[in-house]
Amino acid sequence: MKNSKPMISVRGLEARYGEKVILSDIDLDIFPGQLTVILGSSGCGKTTMLKAITRLVEPTKGSIKYWGEEITQMDENHFQKVLKQVGMLFQGGALLNSLNVFENIAIPLEQHTHLFPALIERIIRVKLSLVKLGDVMHLMPSELSGGMKKRVALARAIVLDPKILFCDEPSAGIDPLTSSHLDELLLELKRKLNMTIVVVTHELASIHRIADRIIFLENGRLIFQGDLASAKQAHVPSIDTFFRSGRYD
Amino acid sequence: MLKHSFHEGLLRIEGSLVAQEIPSLHSELEAALKSKDSFNIDLSGLTGIDSAGVAFLEELTLKAAPKGALIIHPPSAEVQSVMDTFRSLDLPTVEPRPKQGFLESAGENLLIRLDSFKNAIMTASEVVWWSIIGIFDRSGQRKYSIVQHGLVLGFNAMPIIALMSFIIGFILSLQSAVQLRIYGANIFLADLLAVTMVREMGPLITAILVAGRSGSAIASEIASMNVSEELDALRMMALDPVRFVVVPKFHAITLVMPVLVLLAIIAGEIGGAVIAFGYLDLSVSTFLSRSFNILTLKDLIITFTKSTVFAWLIVIIGAHYGFQTTGGAEGVGKATTASVVSSIFAIVIADSLFSLLYI
Question: Is the pTM of this model over 0.95?
Fold first, then answer.
């Protein structure tokens, strides 16, 4: 895999909130068809990193390339074309509260394709069944549990069959069975659609199930990137602690 | 690049069948398929497909099924695997929710409003009861919370209330002065201004501004606490949310509202005095003596009574909508808006009832 060209390449990335530096000097590569897991203690900048890579937080320094094309200086129209190939599952789901489940998932299809309504309905049913949700199309987000919201949000994130899927803590607030099913789904998306997936998670079981590659962050700096086996042999104290106890101290 | 051909009842699709290609393929095939009695589909040339492509093929086969369509040449294993992932033919269809008729919808709305009114009465009685109890027994309330709320609800509102009242007093006098001057009745400006500001404009402007500024803040604060389970947390700490959250606000607003009304009246009078002295050439002593002489004790009692009632309405309505909130951030916004609209409506209704006392 090291010989293949990275799909996303980040060099010297820095991100700040005001004066506070959240990420500094980040160099990383995301390879096509791989599932990359980002790890790190709470507040180390994992979510900010996802947001910086997708320009939801504008990086203050550094370069981010998607398919070899620099996106940090890209104009908005051009960048929107890139974003159509990217899906994002937010930590809390981020469903639009004023729209029902169907309307939430239909937004990208209605805005970015010219498909006829019967097709849109069929695609949405498939995506909902993939995330193991049945007859919820007409429910409002306020009528869903936290786990259901997360799954609807995932259905929305994959509705355009994106080439890259970013997931911010997909297992948070979800029972172990659903979490394991989501892992299976992510693996299926990777295997069958060759989707490139980047996941922020703390779940040790999940990491063992899904990770092809691991990125460790500590205090806003990248301290390791590589496969799971190498991570375990890297002899980095915080990584060792994590794999020994399943948590950060 | 997608290609298709229709030859001797065989529809052959080649290339990548993805969302962008479907609208044009759909319009071309619709016309061609209408004239055919039966046809087969050859997918062996398909090199790629996405979920929209799978859905399109399913729609196509469903439409063509009565005509005997059959996929005779399956796609490659890779494409077949994607088709299996996105297969929707076995999924149950979702029936749309039946639409409500006009009467059904009107009846449901009426019941919801009656229920809401019943809840508002319950909240009001609870707030008033605990506020009376709270005067003697301060348990279940935080120390200095009345002072804190008094500052937020009252002191911080002073500049805007003073400014608005000054401007309204100024405008009112200017409009009246033009007419009064025609009839040489300049001196009556002081009477008119005093009666208007004390009886109506002072309490009304203050109440509307407090409803917009503090009523919305009360509703959104309680609504946010409700959706983020803070109220449940209070209940689990054996604290009554009404006593802990609402009663201090109720006490604070009861104390500060008359002060704010007095400020509004004085500011309005000053605004009017600018016109009286500058445009109508009234002397300060004439203006003051006419203003004080026209007012009675009854005016002042009614004014400060009704301003207190307005304040209670604002807190009770804000608390009611806050406690009724469901549905996250959107619910908080709705509760805040509903609370301001309802408060202003209730204030105007109450004001009209108080006006009857002047008959």
Answer: no
